[in-house]
Amino acid sequence: MGRVTAGYQLWLVRQPLSPNTRRTYLGRVRQYCAYLRASGNDYGNPLSDLHARDYAIRDFKSHLKKSRKAKPATINLTLAALDNLYLFLGLGRPNVRREDLPKEAPRALEPEEQKRFMRAVERCTSIRDRAIALLLFYTALRVGECASLDTNDIALSARKGKVTVRAGKGDLYREVVLNAEAREGLSAWLVERGKRFPDHSETALFLNSHGQRLSIRSIDLTVRRLGKGANVAVSAHRLRHSCLTNLVRRGHDLVLVAEIAGHKRIETTRRYSLPTERDREAAMESLRMEY
Predict the structure, then answer these.
(1) CATH architecture entry for 111-280
(2) Is the terminal CB of the chain with fewer CB neighbours within 10 Å at N or C?
(3) Would residue 210 show up in a list of annotated catalytic residues for this protein?
(4) Is the pLDDT reported for residue 268 higher than 80?
């Protein structure tokens, strides 16, 4: 068992996974191996026999549910880690059913959180950071799409504006209309950009202090820093969810919202109309009666 986990760890380093995913997978595999050592079995070696593999993982899944009180998402993550382990062992994907996850809308900021965040954006002294936040909040651009923008992808006039995403997810092209707030923020940044970097050859819309294209990580950290000032847990991706949730819940056509979001499938957009945990809480609170 120890040789298997040691070999898996070495193999895992070479896989195209994020450091966080590698750490998580290794931790779940170690947990599984500890379970195998402690439980014992009479149906073969789970690390070399296909049937023993499936029986052991099904029992481990039951153990996680009943003894460890693990949630469905945690169980599915563990099963994904074990899929990866058995890929390393050359035994293929185990025949174990995933847990059904509760259907819920993507996690958007609550209205009160949105208000606090936007007030923090309004107070922000960085013209660039304010433009980034307004653009993400009002267009639902993905953070990678935002980082890839060039100055000629922004078209502004006194009363209109649009941003062009030339190669979004799935290499999709789309144009997103800019509202007044986003236009104002971008206009101010373009003026500031011209003053700070005159005669500069870099085409990127958002630049760092050295005049280089702002990275995805830097854009996300900018949003998180603004959120921290408003006591709101937020990321660039959560701003996207908030924009799309606002559009759907205000009654806009799903086809239109899918076009703005850059979704290939309308089912992806339809998730934003699903209930949230707060919706469920509000529904149950509405049953209260006064005596």
Answers:
(1) Orthogonal Bundle (1.10)
(2) C
(3) no
(4) yes
